[in-house]
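Hi V.,

Quick status before I head out on leave. The structure for the redesign project is tokenized and pasted below; the design run finished overnight.
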């Protein structure tokens, strides 16, 4: 399919607790095109994070096919997976997942170390990204010296610094108050508007309303997959 960033065919994922199989994803097929903005919703335990971890190449499916930007991820070895994860994917988590001992600038620069970029260029790029998310005056702060919303901005800057083809965010506003959530959603809106592909998990309808397409999971299967007319009406 032309310009599919994500192509999933019959993705299944089971966890094994001793000898008991717990099927979590039960055959998910899906295409997400370049520059789509997708909200993934569904009840707690329906498999959203499991699916996101597979999309982010943090975990592998039990069976099925996953093609990410033309690369068949389901057939990749670990080292190849690590490379594609670093180059193609920016991941934002609910708990921010920042390194506590590193400054904001150093946290943002981490993916560039793995990409083999020199120190000066790393710092320049990380600084630019922090400015983009409105944290130009907080380079030297450590995570415990930043608010939750500021930590999430650092995490978003880190996710964007390698210019990935796909931004994944699992409940990025789950730990933030309403006002801060609105600010973070504005940043995701800008990320999408500048041509990125965004997939975001949320429990909240008003957060999902920012997306152009809403996919609902239930019990490990896609229950519905609809364009969001409200967001399309407000498109720039
Ligand atoms: N590592 C694991 N080992 C065993 N079972 C797991 C593991 N991770 C997730 N599960 C189970 O898989 C199911 C789906 O979990 P998942 O985290 O994907 O749900 P979710 O849709 O993200 O829920 P929430 O909205 O609460 O974040 C749950 O029943 C969970 O207990
Ligand atoms: Mg989850």
């Amino acid at each position: 399919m032309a310009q599919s960033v994500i192509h999933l065919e019959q993705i299944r994922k089971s966890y094994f607790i001793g000898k008991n199989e717990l099927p979590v994803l039960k055959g998910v097929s899906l295409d997400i095109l370049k520059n789509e903005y997708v909200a993934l919703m569904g009840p707690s335990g329906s498999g959203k994070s499991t699916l996101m971890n597979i999309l982010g190449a943090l975990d592998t499916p039990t069976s099925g096919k996953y093609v990410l930007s033309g690369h068949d991820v389901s057939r990749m070895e670990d080292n190849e997976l690590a490379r594609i994860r670093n180059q193609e994917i920016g991941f934002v988590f609910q708990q921010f997942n920042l390194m506590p001992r590193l400054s904001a600038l150093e946290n943002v620069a981490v993916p560039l170390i793995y990409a083999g970029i020199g120190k000066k260029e790393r710092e320049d790029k990380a600084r630019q990204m922090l400015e983009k998310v409105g944290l130009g005056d907080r380079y030297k702060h450590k995570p415990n010296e930043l608010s939750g919303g500021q930590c999430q901005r650092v995490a978003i800057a880190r996710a964007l610094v390698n210019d990935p083809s796909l931004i994944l965010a699992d409940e990025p506003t789950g730990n933030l108050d309403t006002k801060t959530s609105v600010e973070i959603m504005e940043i995701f809106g800008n990320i999408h508007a500048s041509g990125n592909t965004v997939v975001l998990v949320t429990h909240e309808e008003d957060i999902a309303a920012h997306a152009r397409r809403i996919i609902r999971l239930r019990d490990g299967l896609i229950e519905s997959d609809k364009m969001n007319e409200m967001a399309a009406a407000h498109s720039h």
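Above is the designed sequence. The two ends are 26 Å apart (CA to CA).

G. will cover questions while I'm gone.

Best,
W.
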